[in-house]
């Protein structure tokens, strides 16, 4: 191999730079950070279990969206047979009423910016629960 | 060396066959189903929703816009403030503008100053539904032509296809232009098309459409078109007009002049 | 082969820089549009399609025009087109990319473009247009590249190339017919609701496309040392002549139908286009310029001596190209919306951002064209 020293040296520097986020976070202890969304005081159980919601709330919302808008069916029966009205502002945000204290905590951490809020309204703090969507 | 010796006759036969093969399924699709959209194709048990506008009872010539204000308030329709980007679900126009196909006729005196309320006609054969490339708009069983703002890519083909000019596009973010946001109904975002939805969210709660409820003169009547209902009585008992019905769109807003 | 795009003289790099500059300006303007929305254009509730869709329609035509080389060469053994064929195919690639990009910049929610594929709607002509344009783009890339590669390696092209070329003939007609169907199936817009729209599109495509190709071939001869051959240019010029005559004839047919029948709603659109309507006449000078240019071009092309003279040929082709761009672009899309379905008239003027985005997309097409032609030149010059 020509210029063996330069190539291997360059590769090593590149790998260090590329893996910088990994070893820096591990060394500084910042990797231990977990987002801490503020859970609602009123209810103990969401539409589904917390684990399920953590993993699948995106898909659930898409299913809700299509079911409610495209099929006109706004009733959701959860896996433990409770009935919910399919309504982002009226059902989800009734309990998770502060977007900044709940939704944004994880979304900001993961760097996602779902565009739901372009259309769907975030209720003002301390507002009474809303009705139809 | 290539041995593809194909003479003109064979080529033409092959092309014709190929074209027929290519066109078969699309042609069948086009003529068989008007919209591949919703799972709700077919007649609804309740019948078909229609709106009847009584031009005589409407006091919009005197400046009344109760219905328009109610509709735009309940649905967070923005007031952009210029004609270019205006978003309108329900608005009033002159008789000539509502019925332009009746050119130059001698308009009866009472109709001269009539203002006609125009809105999406929720056609039975909607051209906008046919042309939507993503099925973001579709026709429900009960006749309402729906919009899915999540699906719309903003191509505005539906706006070109609508013979009534009923559809509006969000040329910019509408939120700064909504006076008071009604939290119980979403707004829309820039880049999607919107229009009257016959208040489907209110109908689901058993309410009348906002415009019908707001009219204190009873100029607007709404309901299923089947024997015995009020709209049925209104339409079957007197002469009524629909906009541009020669186009075959089968609009479902009836006007009593 | 492709490394040749990095080897060029001063003029080549000047051209590339100029194109990149326009692309950058277009991108900056597009970022404004992305941020604010389509309110930055001159479009309105009444006139919801404008400069972008006009250009899309026009460039689909230019893309389809490659067929005017493929048919004579592959079906009628017109050997003169052997050297210029690949330029036509690569021009189709660039034009196709330009057309597709114009659709993308026109969308209100471009990030959702894949909804067209995720939720296929066979009842929608735009769905079919996406399908046929994509296939056509791929067809021409394959056809051009494989043929050029074979030439580079000095072997015969593979046997499957010819059947593929024949498919591209049918496909070229289909892309422009489907594009015409976008307009011609709308009962709401009487200006477009005519069976003659697809033939008009095809005729004007077969005039404007080869006209551009002649101009490109002449430019390549002057600055690239590429000689297309007098016979091929003359044949192409004859194709342009017939096509522009048929285009103007079709326009006269439309005018007769509309003005003889005197149906008010049908007349109104043509009145706006030709004479202005109710004091609104912003398109009138453009329309008459287009008609004048087309007539001058017809004269210049029909007279053999001026058709064979390279300078007058170039002028005539430029005139054809511009005339059809006006007629099939703004002159097609805007009058369809004026008067509105309620009989109202508002006018449309593109904004600076709209124009910058448009020139940016043109520049992108020019860049693709330049790079592809550079490779062709390099391969051909390598032979000498």
SSE topology sketch:
The complex is a heterotrimer of chains A (133), B (257) and C (384).
Chain A: H1 4-18, H2 20-28, H3 50-70, E1 75-77, E2 83-85, H4 88-95, H5 103-110
Antiparallel strand pairs in A: 1-2
Chain B: H1 8-32, E1 49-54, H2 66-74, E2 90-94, H3 95-98, H4 109-112, E3 115-119, H5 127-131, E4 137-139, E5 145-147, H6 157-161, E6 168-169, E7 193-194, H7 200-203, H8 210-214, E8 220-224, H9 230-237, E9 253-256
Parallel strand pairs in B: 1-9
Antiparallel strand pairs in B: 1-8, 2-3, 4-5, 6-7
Chain C: H1 10-36, H2 51-64, H3 67-75, H4 85-106, H5 115-118, H6 125-152, H7 161-184, H8 197-224, H9 230-261, H10 264-274, H11 284-302, H12 304-308, H13 310-337, H14 352-383
Helix pairs in contact in C: 1-14, 2-4, 2-7, 2-8, 2-13, 3-7, 4-6, 4-14, 6-7, 7-8, 8-9, 8-13, 9-11, 10-13, 11-13
Give structural notes.
The complex is a heterotrimer of chains A (133), B (257) and C (384). Chain A has a domain at 1-31. Chain A is built from five helices and two strands, in the order αααββαα. Chain A has helices at residues 4-18, 20-28, 50-70, 88-95, 103-110; strands at residues 75-77, 83-85. Chain A has a two-stranded antiparallel ribbon with strand order 1-2. Helices cover 27% and strands 14% of the residues of chain B. Chain B is built from nine helices and nine strands. In chain B, the strands form four sheets. A three-stranded mixed beta sheet of chain B has the order 8-1-9. Chain B has a two-stranded antiparallel sheet with strand order 2-3. In chain B, strands 4-5 form a two-stranded antiparallel sheet. In chain B, a hairpin with a 5-residue loop joins β4 and β5. With 384 residues, chain C is mainly alpha-helical. Chain C has one domain (2-383): Formate dehydrogenase/DMSO reductase fold. Chain C starts with 9 loop residues before the first helix and ends with a helix. The chains are: A mainly alpha (133), B alpha+beta (257), C mainly alpha (384). The A-B interface holds A 65, 69-72, 74, 88-90, 115, 118-121, 123-124, 127, 130-133 and B 38-40, 138, 140, 146, 148-150, 173, 181, 183-189, 200-202, 204-205.
Q: What string gives the helices and strands of chain A in order? A: HHHEEHH
Strand order of the largest sheet of chain A: 1-2
List the uncertain runs of chain A: 128-133
> Structural class given helices, strands, pairing of chain A?
mainly alpha
Mean pLDDT of chain A, rounded to whole units? 86
The CATH architecture classification of chain C is Up-down Bundle
Q: Please state the overall shape of chain C, judged from the principal axes of the Cα atoms.
A: globular
Would you count the extended β strands of chain A for me? 2
Spans where pLDDT lies below 50 across 5 or more residues of chain C: none
Briefly note the CATH topology name of chain C. Answer: Formate dehydrogenase/DMSO reductase fold
What percentage of amino acids of chain A are in beta strands? under 5%
């Amino acid at each position: 191999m020509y210029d063996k020293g330069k190539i291997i040296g360059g590769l090593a520097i590149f790998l260090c730079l590329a893996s910088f986020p990994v070893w820096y976070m591990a060394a500084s202890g910042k990797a231990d950070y977990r987002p801490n969304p503020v859970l609602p005081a009123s209810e103990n159980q969401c539409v589904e279990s917390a684990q399920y919601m953590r993993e699948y709330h995106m898909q659930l919302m898409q299913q809700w969206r299509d079911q409610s808008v495209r099929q006109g069916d706004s009733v959701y029966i959860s896996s433990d047979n409770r009935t919910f009205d399919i309504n982002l502002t009226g059902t989800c945000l009734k309990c998770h009423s502060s977007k900044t204290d709940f939704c944004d905590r994880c979304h900001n951490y993961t760097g996602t910016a779902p565009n739901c809020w372009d259309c769907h309204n975030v209720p003002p703090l301390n507002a009474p629960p809303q009705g139809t969507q | 060396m290539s041995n593809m010796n194909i003479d003109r006759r064979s080529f033409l036969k092959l092309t014709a066959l190929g074209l027929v093969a290519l066109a078969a399924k699309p042609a069948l699709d086009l003529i068989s189903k008007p919209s591949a959209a919703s799972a709700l194709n077919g007649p609804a048990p309740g019948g078909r929703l229609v709106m009847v506008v009584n031009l005589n009872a409407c006091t919009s010539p005197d400046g009344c816009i109760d219905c328009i204000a109610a509709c735009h308030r309940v649905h967070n329709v923005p007031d952009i403030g210029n004609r270019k980007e205006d978003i309108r679900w329900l608005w009033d126009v002159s008789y000539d503008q509502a019925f332009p196909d009746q050119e130059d006729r001698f308009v009866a005196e009472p109709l001269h100053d009539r203002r006609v309320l125009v809105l999406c006609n929720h056609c039975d054969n909607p051209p906008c539904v046919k042309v939507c490339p993503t099925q973001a708009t579709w026709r429900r069983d009960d006749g309402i032509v729906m919009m899915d703002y999540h699906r719309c890519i903003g191509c505005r083909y539906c706006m070109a296809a609508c013979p009534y000019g009923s559809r509006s596009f969000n040329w910019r973010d509408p939120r700064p232009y909504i006076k008071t946001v009604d939290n119980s109904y979403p707004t829309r975002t820039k880049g999607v098309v919107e229009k009257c939805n016959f208040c489907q969210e209110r109908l689901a709660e058993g309410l009348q459409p906002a415009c019908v409820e707001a009219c204190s003169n009873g100029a607007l009547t709404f309901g299923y078109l089947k024997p015995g209902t009020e709209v049925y009585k209104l339409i079957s008992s007197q002469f009524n007009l629909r906009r541009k019905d020669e186009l075959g769109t089968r609009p479902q807003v009836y006007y009593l002049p | 082969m492709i490394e040749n795009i990095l080897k060029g003289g001063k003029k080549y790099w000047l051209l590339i820089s100029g194109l990149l500059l326009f692309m950058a300006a277009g991108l900056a303007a597009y970022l404004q549009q992305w941020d604010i929305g389509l309110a930055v254009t001159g479009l309105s509730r009444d006139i919801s399609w404008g400069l972008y869709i006009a250009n899309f329609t026009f460039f689909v035509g230019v893309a389809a025009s490659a067929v005017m080389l493929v048919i004579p060469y592959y079906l009628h053994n017109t050997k003169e087109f052997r050297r210029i064929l690949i330029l036509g195919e690569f021009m189709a690639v660039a034009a196709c990319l330009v057309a597709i990009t114009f659709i993308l910049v026109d969308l209100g929610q471009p990030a959702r473009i894949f909804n067209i594929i995720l939720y296929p709607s066979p009842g929608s002509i735009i769905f079919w247009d996406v399908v046929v344009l994509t296939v056509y783009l791929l067809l021409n890339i394959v056809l051009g590249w494989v043929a050029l590669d074979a030439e580079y390696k000095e072997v015969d092209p593979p046997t499957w190339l010819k059947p593929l070329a024949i498919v591209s003939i049918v496909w070229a007609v289909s892309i422009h017919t489907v594009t015409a169907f976008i307009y011609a199936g709308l009962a709401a817009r009487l200006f477009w609701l005519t069976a003659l729209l697809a033939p008009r599109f095809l005729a004007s495509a077969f005039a404007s496309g080869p006209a551009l190709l002649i101009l490109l071939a002449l430019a390549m001869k002057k600055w690239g040392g590429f000689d297309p051959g007098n016979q091929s240019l003359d044949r192409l010029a004859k194709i342009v002549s017939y096509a522009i005559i048929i285009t103007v004839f079709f326009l006269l047919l439309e005018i007769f139908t509309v003005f003889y029948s005197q149906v008010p709603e049908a007349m109104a659109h043509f009145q706006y286009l030709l004479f202005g309507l109710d004091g609104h006449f912003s398109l009138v000078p453009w329309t008459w310029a287009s008609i004048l240019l087309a007539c001058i071009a017809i004269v210049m092309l029909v007279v053999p001596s001026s058709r064979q003279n390279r300078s007058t040929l170039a002028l005539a082709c430029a005139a054809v190209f511009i005339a059809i761009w006006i007629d099939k672009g703004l002159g097609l899309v805007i009058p369809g919306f004026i008067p509105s379905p309620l009989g109202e008239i508002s006018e449309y003027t593109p904004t600076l951002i709209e124009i910058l985005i448009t020139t940016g997309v043109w520049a992108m097409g020019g860049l693709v064209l330049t790079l592809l032609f550079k490779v062709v030149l390099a391969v051909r010059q390598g032979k000498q």
